[in-house]
Structures are given as C-alpha cells and as structure tokens.
Specification:
Structural class: mainly beta
Strand order of the largest sheet: 11-8-14-15-16
Shape: elongated
Number of strands: 17
Helix content: under 10%
Order of helices and strands: EEEEHEEHEEEEEEEEEEEH
Bound molecules: calcium ion
Radius of gyration: 19 Å
C-alpha cells in the first residue's frame, strides 16, 4: 500500500491519493479531496476518472508541464491467483490532470550550492510559502515507502485565486543551513531557485530576485504561536 499527499486541484489544500496494492477486496486507486472549508476528505475517485485496479508504485510529477501534478502508477500481481492475473495484466499508466491548472500555481526547482551549502538536489530543503493569508509548506524528499515512491524534485504549490505570492522562505538543508526569503512573486510561473544566488525564470533564465538572508531563530519548547513557526 502507498499513499501520497498532493494538491491535485491547486486550491492550496493537500488531497490524499491511496494506492492499495492487491489485497483481496477489489482495491482501486482512490483520490480524496480535502474540502477547503471543513477540511474533511471527500472521495472524488469517480470524478477523477480513475479505473485502476491493484495499484502500486506511485510517482507524482507535472509530466505535461502545465502547472498541475499528474500521476504515474503501476499495478501488482503479488497476491493474485493465476486466473486473476489473466484478467488484470501488469501495466503502467499516467493520469493527466485536467483540473489543477484552472487555479493559480507556482512551480519551483531548487538547486543547492553543493560543497558550500545544501546538496545540489536540495533534498531536505523546506519551503514555506504565504499567499492570500494562507501558509503552505513542502519538504523536498529523496524517496520514501517500501515501493520506492519517488516524486519529481520540482515542487508545485496550488495558489487558488491568489494574484501574488507574498512571501516564500527556503530553509536549505546542509552546510550553513541557510535561510533565504523572497517576496512579491508572480504566480503561474516556473521558477528555478539557486542557493545563494536567487530566483530565476526557469524557461528564460532571467534573474527575478536576489535572496534576502534570514537569521535562524533560536528553537524553544514553547507552543508555536503562528502557522509558520509550527512548520520550522
Ligand atoms: Ca486540493
Ligand atoms: Ca500537469
């Protein structure tokens, strides 16, 4: 069984994808949308058009580079009888997202400084983003789960109808543990962020903004006062 958090509709709230392998109860790939008002999860599998049995080996990426997360999935025969295997051939599928890019987004590729900072792939870096009074966080991961779940290292944040990103802070993980902040960024862009150098348009290479270094705050055992403090 694998699960993945993704904001498939780019409304700024994470949704849940459940891939249930081939345990014997007709398991299907399922998608649950987080209601942005109640924060309850609603089964939207039928709406998403999933008809995928014995799913496993999830991987998330914006395969068609249109600003929303698409889903790569395989399936498994591990617990099936010979007759069942004949009915469900082994296969791989890509489900293209036709919903997410109706909302605003930002797509980010982080590059660490290497020897003088974070690793080049920026594994372990944490991004905290604020737009329209809503704070989101994403941590770049080098893979997890016993099926070797690895997503694209490029990160997409859904921004709903926000017209700008008020503030974005990168907590680089590595030598110096730099903290860098950017502000007033445009949505619906593909950005590249190079540690110590700044943020660039990933398509044209144009420099957008230099980073503002932020001093790390002393950690305490007190209960976090703000949403952002809670993410640190
Ligand atoms: Ca969502
Ligand atoms: Ca896409």
């Amino acid at each position: 069984m694998s699960v993945a958090w993704l904001d498939f509709d780019n409304d700024g709230w994470l949704d849940l994808l459940v891939s249930s392998s081939d345990y014997p109860d007709n398991q299907m790939l399922k998608l649950y949308r987080q209601n942005p008002k109640t924060h309850k999860f609603e089964n939207v599998t039928e709406f998403a058009g999933f008809n995928w049995q014995n799913s496993t080996q999830l991987s998330l990426a914006d395969f068609d580079r249109d600003g929303d997360i698409d889903i790569l999935v395989g399936n498994t025969h591990m617990r099936l009888t010979k007759e069942q295997r004949a009915k469900i051939p082994l296969a791989t599928a890509v489900f293209r997202n036709n919903v997410g890019n109706k909302n605003n987004f930002v797509s980010l590729k982080l590059i660490g400084a290497g020897k003088t900072g974070a690793n080049k792939a920026a594994i372990g870096a944490r991004i905290v983003l604020k737009a329209s009074g809503h704070t989101q966080m994403h941590e770049i991961s080098g893979g997890h789960g016993h099926f070797g779940h690895q997503d694209d290292l490029r990160v997409i944040f859904g921004l709903a109808k926000a017209q700008k990103i008020d503030e974005m802070t990168i907590y680089w993980h590595g030598k110096n543990n730099r903290i860098e902040r950017f502000s007033n960024l445009q949505p619906n862009k593909f950005y590249k962020i190079i540690e110590g150098k700044g943020i660039f348009d990933a398509n044209t290479g144009a420099a957008i903004q230099k980073p503002t270094p932020v001093k790390p705050q002393k950690r305490s055992n007190k209960k976090p006062k703000t949403e952002e403090e809670d993410f640190r």
